[in-house]
Amino acid sequence: MQRLRNSGCQPYELMTDERRLIQDCLKGKLSAQRELYEKYAGSMLGVCFRYTRSLPDAEDVLQEAFVKVFNKLGQFKFEGELGGWIRRIMVTTALNYLKKNKRYQTEMYFTEEYMHPVTNDNPEINIEAKEIANLIRQLPQGYQVIFNLHAVEGYSHVEIGQILGISDSTSRSQYARARAVLISWIKALQEERLSDNEKLTYVGK
Amino acid sequence: MLANDFEKEVEQRLAQLQMRPSDGVWQKLEAGLQKKKRRRAFFLFFLTALVCTGGGFVAWQQLNPAQPQMVNTTGTDITPDKNKLTANETTTLTNINTNTTVDTTVNTKNDEVVKQPAIPAKADNVHTITDKKAISNVDVATVNKKPKNKKNIVVKANTNKVNTDIIDITGTPANVNDDAVTNNSIIAVNENSDADIITKRKLTVASNLSDKSFVNITDTNSITDIPVNIASIPQHIVTQGEIVKITKKKYPFYWGVEVMAGVSGTMDKIEGVNKSMQLDAPTAGYNNGLSPVLSNSAVWESQNTHRASTAHSFGLVGYKQLTRRNAVSVGLSYQYLSTISKIGDSSTTVSNNANMRTYYYGRELKNHINKFHFISIPVTHHLILNKNENMPFSWDLGGSVSRLISTNALVASSYLGGSFHEDDKSFTKTHFFIHTGFTIGFTNNKNRVWQMGPVLNYGINKIGQLKGDDKNFWEVGIKLRCLLQ
After folding, report:
1. Which of A95, B132, B250, B281 has the fewest CB neighbours in a 10 Å radius?
2. Is the model's pTM score more than 0.80?
């Protein structure tokens, strides 16, 4: 399965530029490191944002992950997109952050306790990316992690089970419920917005 | 929409999500990167210092080889006519005090004749031999470096049945009986097989003894050289008819004081690169308990804003050499570690949480020294790398258990917008450290030993039960010991 589908970043047009940037970073040039950071920080903060509850926490993850990026940049083999490689580190760091942080640990709950109806509905989405991200972040932590890993990052349920130490069937059922909850929230938000627009139209008339 | 269209739609939308991080993220990242550079430079310096220290020591050893010394247990000045002696030539020397003569074999090295004393032929003769003094009953030998492939050898010498002088040279008991000990015989025993007598020899032996030297004992029958470790020669001779009960060389116990001064700081936990990249599975047993309390959200502020600061320790130490190459030491000491944080002004109005005594706003305003006071019990193994008993050079490796007795260290709370507060309950009380380093000893007085050298100390466990708490203490410095017997 395609993993970490895309970085959400514009790749360098010239591979040589990317190599040069990486080589300069490996030499410890601060300007190159700043350039790399500026290039990817915006999109990567979006990744971190989806896994955490607050923007400061997302920034903590971003900073910690970029430290790892610079420490391990020499291991990048140019076999894929640099953005994808960085994004994988972001996800790894975010999950470790959730694991280490007791505040998040209390919310990481992977049993069948949360019962939500499962749906195969595929509604059209007419809301902004940040609104979707905010809705994802409002999911229970276990749902949030599994939804992010499967729907956005592209991990299979078997892989998610290995990562989180749960069975793949648990991952599958949690994902189905997370999906159902998210769809219901999206629908509700869209309907609410639609009715607001109708009211505005009526008032306008 | 088709199945999975929802996922694709979500993924495509989220791929467009761009958020601008605050400037503080890069500032902290930059500080961390620069600190990493400094840390790398420091370790490079430390490594270079170690290499230079070791290299200098070896060079010093090479430039100051032990000089052969005249040995004369009787105080008699017996000097063979150098001009008349050639290698392996036997001649007769006369002890002018006792008017006795012995046969002497002379070896030469670099045309230098090494002289040996004659034997006083006196019943029940008892000699006392001290370090760097000769065995009696010896003739002449050359002093060479120890052959690398030779084991140390225990040698017993008996040159006269009547005037028996049995010389206990080192180590392990030997199966020697009176009958076996004949006039002018030497019995050599392999050190590694306690009772195996290798050979009995007609004497012509001996030695010009000094530390770092090995003696070729020349067998007049077979002209076989036996290397003897001079450094392990004990200091007594027994009288006639008494078979020496050879015992292991006893090393004295030393005790004394130890001080150390250096710097300390915090660092990420040392782990394998691959391991650090893995996604560790969350541990089982999550619960959805109460809302998080403030202490759970407290963070040991990113190491990026923690700078190294001074460290020292002092205490008592016991030192015991077990074998020629191994020694252990145990101590009880007070240990002080510290780091420096950038914090803001103090405030009393941030929170009314009784667990938090003092609060500080923001950062980058002034330095706060986080002080950690420990009581520590270090245990160290010393692997002695050279043979110079007067200046042993050892590689040290050990561990210690330390109890945090107090600290004024601050933790930061993301809930409070980056404010700091004291919360010593957040810190791990019992720490385990591992340490390594090198030690050079100086012994100019038998009862007193000075030891000094660099030491690197690393805390195995985390500093506290905090978010981002995979920080560990490190400490480097120079230690100095004064030991008394």
Report:
1. B250
2. no
